[in-house]
Amino acid sequence: MPDRRPRAAWRRRAEPPPEASSAQPPLAAGATRSSAARPDRARSSVVQSTLYRDGRRVASPTTLADTFRQLREHPDGMAWIGLQYPTDEELHSLAAEFDLHELAVEDAREAHQRPKLERYGDTLFVVLRAARYLDAPEEVEFGELHVFVGPDFLITVRHGAAPDLSAVRRRMEENPDLLALGPEAVLYAILDAVVDGYAPVVAGVQNDIDEIETEVFGGDPAVSRRIYELSREMVEFQRATRPLVGMLHALMAGFAKYGTDEELQRYLRDVADHVTHTSERVDGFRQALTDILTVNATLVTQQQNAEMRALAEAGFEQNEEIKKISSWAAILFAPTLVGTIYGMNFDHMPELHWAGGYPFAVVLMAAVCTSLYVVFKRKDWL
Question: What is the pTM of this model?
Answer without folding.
Answer: 0.69
